[in-house]
Amino acid sequence: MKRTFSVPRIHCDGCVRTVTETLKSVSGVTAAEADALKKTVDVVFDPAAVTEERLRQALVNVGYPAAN
Ligand SMILES: [Cu+2]
Fold it and tell me: Distance, CA 52 to ligand 1 centroid (Å)?
């Protein structure tokens, strides 16, 4: 399953790295790609292994709450 989150606090490559690494470290996530210009992150995950809420929480934990 693929989901795109809008993450307004992404503003540079450092943010992109943090957000991407954070999501990739969550069990059940197979891919994560953030975009500093669009301020979004595309996440590919197995819905049987991880919930969307868990992904949101992981983002909140590192200071990048999703806006959608
Ligand atoms: Cu930044």
Answer: 23
Tell me the average pLDDT across 32-44.
Answer: 98
DSSP E strands in 1-68: the ranges are: 2-6, 29-35, 40-45
CA distances from 61 to 5, 28, 56, 57 (A): 15, 18, 9, 6
**pLDDT score, position 38:** 97
Q: What are the structural domains, with CATH classification, of the chain?
A: 2-61 (3.30.70.100)
C-alpha of residue 68 to centroid of ligand 1, in Å: 20
